[in-house]
Write a structure and sequence with these properties.
single chain, mainly alpha, Serine Threonine Protein Phosphatase 5, Tetratricopeptide repeat, 33 helices
């Protein structure tokens, strides 16, 4: 009797056992994943968006405040920068560790919600452990991408809304609204929740008080004012910098990438620049078509109009594309657009890769059926279903990838828990129980339809990839880490599989260039150009080789070709300006003032903001005999940059120019 009493008391006083156990399981699994992944160059140098966010954070740590509009929502890089400050400048591991913490906490919150909503400890264990071992959650927690943090805060939002339902105080009203503010600054899609969340708070308050409540209305107004305060600095920054009234300026571009004649419904592929497009290329194309310089807001509107034009001129194709996107949302294939997804996970752990392949299929089939039943049976589950539905509606106009549909998986997991609990009860009662079919036939139809959608062949091939593509991905990662021996071996393996693989010979040339083997580097760049004559990087690097060999005119020609192929290529522009500057100095040494002046003018036209080139141009202007114009140029420069030593020195020497050696003040 005493033992039974103690056990009963333990169950009553230990509600923390479930969430704590789930958090520990989730943390241990994710730490083991990081330990396995840390051995791989493909993990240590992920590239693309993860690299962009990390470089942005590093720049912020160095004190560089952005003076252009936010192309992406800014919370994530700023958050990484804060962590970097706390962890002695580390912006790689710190974000991954904190994401593991938040994800483990999220697993605990899901366990608590499932136990509370379904009134079952078993439901709590299923939901909590389900998220702890969910393959894509483990993967995204180890990536420097928004998906992990965004989904963790989404789970927190659901939990806080439920917490508010139990007792709608001021703080319980403020917390979900503040969480919504963070979600908005993580990804602008969360703006769609700005109407939904306040409405849910009002409905819950009215249900709790059985009437319209003035105090709760006041609480909600205060919370919304705080929400506006959270996003206002970002909006003001974008307004000042030309980005318009927006959280980020990429919305129009992403809308176009998801709605054009060659769009597949997945991946952010540009019809002209492919999947490795740059923001500069996108912006230059818009300005070239419009025939004028555009602000970031105008560029976003330009691409929004192109997307809308696609819908108005090809409505049948656009509708068909949208249907494909809808099917891709629930298809069991995980589509990665920032990393080679399944081959990478397989390299970390074949077991995890196999688990990832079946994860979404399991929770989608069970989850959608459970949500249909749960909507009718468990009213507390409805806010989560509504928020997930709004999220899906928000991503449908763009494109469907693993990380964009990832936030709905916790809600599907709760739905799966509902299904599993009631399947257990059905089997306990017996499949032939009278009236069972009549009671559950709608759920059966939903389950059958869902199974067809989930398991149907995908319109986008994502299950595997050619060996040469995977080898190239591995080689690139090793190259970014400067592991040149590994990179060289991998790139040669790529060329063995496919002798014309784009950028493989180019990158072998880059390796030889880093080793100062200019002859071998040039040979590989020429090989790349034989197959891809407009390869901008190869053209630019050939210019570098010729410049190192002091063949300035040949170098100039390659840099010019690179800029013709891609006018936005910054390295080629800087390199070409440097060649003009060197040619001007050479001309001045042989007293060819006219040529020096013309070359320096070209250098300045190529990179107008280079201060040293501005000084040199003023000097050559004086050398031509136009002292007053040279003084004006230097005075204008000193008005903006009064501390520039070259400009100050040149200005002081102008009065004695004829007696001075002009080359002595040329930078």
């Amino acid at each position: 009797m005493k033992i039974r009493t103690n056990l009963s008391q333990f169950r009553e006083i230990a509600p923390w056992v479930l969430p704590l156990s789930v958090a520990v399981i989730a943390t241990v699994i994710r730490i083991l994943y990081l330990a396995a992944a840390a051995k791989l160059p493909t993990f240590l140098s992920p590239g693309m968006d993860a690299e962009i966010y990390r470089k942005w954070a590093d720049s912020l740590i160095q004190g560089n405040s952005p003076d252009i509009p936010f192309f992406r929502a800014p919370f994530y890089p700023y958050f990484i920068a804060v962590l970097g400050k706390m962890f002695h400048g580390d912006t790689f591991w710190s974000i991954r560790i904190i994401q593991i913490f938040f994800s483990s906490l999220s697993a605990s919150l899901l366990a608590v919600l499932a136990r509370r909503w379904l009134d079952s400890s078993l439901a709590g264990w299923i939901a909590g452990v389900g998220w702890a071992i969910y393959g894509l959650s483990i993967y995204f927690d180890g990536e420097g991408l928004i998906a992990s943090l965004y989904t963790s805060f989404f789970i927190l939002l659901i939990y806080l809304l439920d917490h508010h339902r139990n007792h709608p105080t001021l703080l319980r009203t403020i917390f979900p609204i503040l969480t919504l503010g963070i979600l908005t600054l993580l990804r602008a899609n969360a703006l769609l929740w700005w109407i939904v969340v306040p409405v849910l708070l009002i409905k819950q308050s009215n249900f709790y008080h059985k009437r319209f409540d003035i105090e709760q209305t006041r609480n909600l107004i205060i919370a919304i004012l705080l929400l506006c305060m959270i996003v206002t600095p970002t909006i003001l920054h974008n307004l000042r910098a030309g980005g318009g009234f927006a959280i980020s300026t990429q919305g129009g571009i992403n809308l176009y990438l998801g709605n054009h004649p060659s769009a597949t419904g997945a991946y952010a592929v540009d019809p002209d620049f492919g999947n490795d497009w740059t923001r500069e290329q996108i912006e230059h194309r818009a300005e070239d078509i419009e025939g004028r310089s555009l602000t970031a807001a105008e560029i976003s509107r330009f691409y929004t109009r192109l997307a809308w034009k696609y819908w108005t001129t090809s409505p049948v194709d656009a509708i068909e594309l949208t249907v494909k996107k809808f099917l891709l949302i629930f298809n069991n294939r995980e589509i990665g657009n920032n990393r080679v997804l399944l081959p990478f996970i397989h390299e970390v752990s074949p077991l995890l890769a196999g688990w990832v392949k079946i994860n979404f299929a399991l929770i989608a089939i069970l989850g959608l059926s459970g949500l249909v039943y749960g909507w009718r049976k468990f009213t507390n589950l409805r806010p989560a279903i509504v928020l997930a539905g709004v999220h899906l509606f928000g991503i449908l106009p763009f494109f469907i990838t693993a990380r964009y549909r990832f936030p709905i998986t916790p809600v599907l997991l709760i739905g799966s828990t509902v299904s599993l609990i009631y399947l257990t009860q059905i089997f306990k009662k017996g499949l032939m129980e009278k009236g069972l079919f009549r009671k559950y036939w709608q759920i059966g139809i939903v389950a059958l339809t869902t199974t067809i959608i989930v398991l149907a062949p995908s319109s986008v091939h994502v299950d595997s990839m050619p060996i040469d593509q995977w080898l190239f991905h591995q080689a690139n990662a090793a190259l970014r880490l400067n592991r040149l021996e590994i990179a060289t071996t991998k790139f040669h393996e790529v060329l063995h599989e496919n002798s014309n693989y784009k950028d493989a010979a180019l990158n072998l040339g880059v390796i030889h260039l880093r080793q100062s083997d200019f002859d071998s580097a040039g040979w590989y760049f020429e090989r790349e150009l034989e197959t891809y004559p407009d390869n901008v990087k190869a053209l630019n690097n050939m210019g570098v080789v010729e410049e190192r060999n002091d063949n300035l005119q040949e170098s100039r020609a390659f840099y010019q070709q690179a800029l013709l192929a891609d006018p936005t290529h910054l390295d080629a522009r800087i390199n070409l300006a440097r060649i003009y500057n060197r040619l001007a100095a050479q001309a001045m040494q042989i007293q060819d003032v006219e040529s020096a002046y013309n070359y320096q003018k070209l250098a300045l036209e190529t990179t107008p903001k280079n201060l040293d080139y501005n000084v040199n141009f003023a000097v050559y202007t004086a050398a031509k005999g136009d002292i007053r114009e040279a003084e004006r140029l230097l005075r204008d420069l000193l008005d903006v940059h009064p501390d520039h030593p070259g400009a100050s020195r040149a200005f002081a020497l102008l009065s004695r120019f004829e007696e001075s050696d002009s080359t002595s003040i040329i930078r």
